[in-house]
Amino acid sequence: MQASSTLLASSRVRAWEWLLWPLLLASPLLFPSQALIINEIAIVALFAISLDLILGYTGIVSLGHAAFFGLGGYAAGLLAKHLTGDPLTGLLAGTAVSALAGAVMSLTILRGNDLTRLMVTLGFALILYELANKLDWLTGGADGLQGVNMAPLLGRFEFDLFGRTAALYSLSVLLLTFLLLRRVVHSPYGATLMAIRDNRLRAQSIGIPVAQHLASVYTLAAAIAGTAGVLMTQTTGFASLDLFDIHRSADVLLMLVIGGTGWLYGGILGAVVFKVLQDVLSSITPQYWTFWLGLFLVVLVLVGRERLVSPLSRAAGGRP
I want to staple 145 with a disulfide (CB 3.0 to 4.6 A). Which of 41, 50, 77, 213 is the partner? Predict the structure, then answer.
């Protein structure tokens, strides 16, 4: 009884969050000139928390998480091009396709060690990348999927060139997904995931169905990654091989290095810092911005990320 009340208390919205999220949702209106970058931050933050769900809470390492991001993006793009441009229909369809792929892929991560999972997930992403490249009659190949025309959101809100509708749309999906995942990770199911992360053999010995939990959480994470991919395609009106590229999986890992794993705000914090640094540094030094970003990461590791984000993590009810 005490454990369940503790989990319930940790999942409640804190006072500072009632201020944070309205500010985030209002940011495209407060900073209309930055709506495009805000939209991109919201999308990659959603992508990051999907990886945190399996890496930070379950201990599943993945170097091919972009596979589900790309599947969701292409599914939404093809649906908009050939059937309907309704954003919410595309959101559901792309999420479902990625969830199905995640359910199939989950069978491959139940055995082996971390290195095996890294190679298997990376191989899956590379296979999808090559398929999207070769099936140019369907995906557009190297030229990308063009002609993706989105209908107005809820039949009223057009996707404008300034990105305000897109940013509000992506931020809303991020908020709803965040609230859902917080209930998941602070539930008894989430507690069993962390038990599996800490000691899989011990979790199995006390009766936790490890295989089923790993498969279900991997499927959920794949679905959320697919949702992020859908948002990317819908808000840009374009889907390309870049959605499957390994740099997407690497970038999202870097975001979790910055923000920390095992607390959902780590993905959001990492996404904000990473994208702002990328935008600022690339505008100052277009040729060498990766050097300065790499230097920042080295300094962050040497200083100790825990010293910087542990107070934030404790305030959010997590632990990086």
Answer: 77
The set of long-range contacts for 139-147, using a CB threshold of 8 Å and a minimum separation of 24, is: 139/74, 139/78, 139/239, 140/239, 140/240, 141/241, 142/241, 144/238, 144/239, 144/240, 144/241, 145/74, 145/77, 145/78, 145/81, 145/233, 145/238, 145/239, 145/240, 146/238, 147/81
> CB-based contacts of 160: which residues, under 8 Å, 6+ apart?
166
Q: Is 59 left (phi over 0), alpha (psi -120 to 50) or beta?
A: left
Q: 3-state SS of the chain?
A: CHHHHHHHHHCCCCHHHHHHHHHHHHHHHHCHHHHHHHHHHHHHHHHHHHHHHHHCCCCCCCCCCHHHHHHHHHHHHHHHHHCCCCHHHHHHHHHHHHHHHHHHHHHHCCCCCHHHHHHHHHHHHHHHHHHHHHCHHHHCHHHCECCCCCCCECCCECCCCCCHHHHHHHHHHHHHHHHHHHHHHCCHHHHHHHHHHHCHHHHHHCCCCHHHHHHHHHHHHHHHHHHHHHHHHHHHCCECHHHCCHHHHHHHHHHHHHHCCCCCHHHHHHHHHHHHHHHHHHHHCCCCHHHHHHHHHHHHHHHCHHHHHHHHHHHHCCCC
Tokens of 93: 């369809």
- Which of 271, 311, 256 shows the shortest CA–CA distance to 53? 256
148: which 2 tokens? 């993706």
Tokens found for residue 266: 């780590």
Nearest CA-CA partner of 185 in 3, 31, 302, 10: 10
pLDDT tens digit string along 245-292? Answer: 888 888 898 888 888 888 888 889 888 988 888 888 888 877 777 788
Q: Cα–Cα distance between 192 and 200 in angstroms, integer? A: 10
Residues 145 and 228: their CA atoms lie apart, in Å, by: 17
